[in-house]
């Protein structure tokens, strides 16, 4: 079953208030974070609270981001998360397939691509057992010694390479965060660009970003109607590989995409 992953909200595992609030939000995925958003002296408490909260988010997909296994907290994080059994475990700064293999077990692994080496090895990471790829654009820009550009043109190669690797291996892939919480126009442009690149959704840092993200990464009513028309047209012409519809030629590949669009729309409808 296709799971919508339009809005992937990061929630600090150390904040009881935010863990509680996330239960009422309309994001598709809740990421309970034990890594960047948690201070070193709060790591143990965050692990306990996040693992206790895993089963309290209803139909939302729940993922826990753990600290790297090389840190003082990583191995304890992994052991606790395996016992808590969220939908997946998210590992930051994945740089090779061996990083994913080190976590392999009963839980699907989401891999964050946020270093130059991770980008260079993203095809191997996608082939190495990851269930989903997530861009970490802030860390990647920092590692590149690069600056933020509104159109992200200095990240286009990395964004495309990650999407292509994910699609080549049948994985989901989500775009990086947008940091300017109050800039709705800029966030809308970033979501629209991310969808145009082929991402399934976007990681979020604030609940106020959920509505725009859910809307942009969902099929529009026009797309749904057109997908139905395409499938109906091929149903009426079962022996043809290409037909004319509304003044343009459509092929079987368009029918495959129409099927995907309708499946996603149906999954979103069930999620609502």
Number of domains: 2
Low-pLDDT parts are: none
Q: Could you name the CATH class of the largest domain?
A: Alpha Beta
Q: In terms of quaternary structure, what is this?
A: single chain
How is the topology of this model organized?
Layout: E1 7-12, H1 16-21, E2 29-33, H2 43-53, E3 61-66, H3 74-84, E4 88-91, H4 97-101, E5 109-113, H5 116-120, H6 122-127, E6 132-135, H7 137-144, H8 156-168, E7 172-175, H9 184-197, E8 201-204, H10 210-216, H11 221-236, E9 242-245, E10 248-251, H12 252-271
Helix pairs in contact: 2-3, 11-12
Question: Could you please describe the fold and organization of this structure?
Answer:
The radius of gyration is 19 Å and the shape is globular. The strands form two sheets. An eight-stranded parallel beta barrel has the order 1-2-3-4-5-6-7-8, surrounded by five helices. The protein has a two-stranded antiparallel ribbon with strand order 9-10. It has helices spanning 16-21, 43-53, 74-84, 97-101, 116-120, 122-127, 137-144, 156-168, 184-197, 210-216, 221-236, 252-271; strands at 7-12, 29-33, 61-66, 88-91, 109-113, 132-135, 172-175, 201-204, 242-245, 248-251. α2 packs parallel to α3 and α11 crosses α12 (252-271). The chain is 45% helix and 17% strand. The chain is built from twelve helices and ten strands. α9 (184-197) links the parallel β7 and β8.
């Amino acid at each position: 079953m296709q799971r919508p992953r339009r809005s992937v909200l990061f929630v600090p595992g150390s904040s009881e208030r935010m863990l509680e609030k996330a239960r009422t939000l309309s994001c598709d995925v809740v990421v309970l974070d034990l890594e960047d958003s948690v201070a070193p002296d709060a790591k143990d408490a965050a692990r306990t609270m996040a693992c206790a909260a895993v089963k309290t988010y209803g139909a939302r997909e729940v993922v826990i981001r753990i600290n790297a296994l090389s840190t003082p907290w990583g191995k304890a994080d992994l052991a606790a998360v395996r016992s808590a059994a969220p939908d997946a475990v998210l590992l930051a700064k994945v740089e090779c397939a061996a990083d994913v293999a080190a976590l392999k077990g009963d839980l699907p692994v989401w891999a964050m691509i946020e270093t130059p080496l991770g980008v260079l090895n993203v095809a191997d990471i996608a082939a190495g057992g990851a269930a989903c790829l997530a861009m970490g654009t802030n860390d990647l820009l920092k590692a590149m010694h690069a600056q933020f550009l509104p159109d992200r043109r200095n990240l286009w190669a990395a964004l495309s390479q990650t999407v292509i690797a994910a699609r080549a291996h049948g994985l989901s892939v989500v775009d990086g965060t947008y940091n300017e919480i109050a800039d709705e126009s800029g966030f809308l442009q970033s979501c629209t660009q991310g969808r145009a690149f082929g991402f399934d959704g976007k990681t979020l840092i604030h609940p106020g970003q959920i509505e725009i993200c859910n809307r942009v990464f969902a099929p529009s009513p026009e797309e749904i109607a057109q997908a139905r028309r395409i499938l109906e047209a091929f149903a009426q012409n079962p022996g043809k590989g290409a037909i004319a519809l509304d003044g343009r030629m459509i092929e079987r590949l368009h029918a495959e995409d129409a099927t995907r669009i309708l499946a996603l729309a149906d999954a979103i409808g069930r999620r609502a």
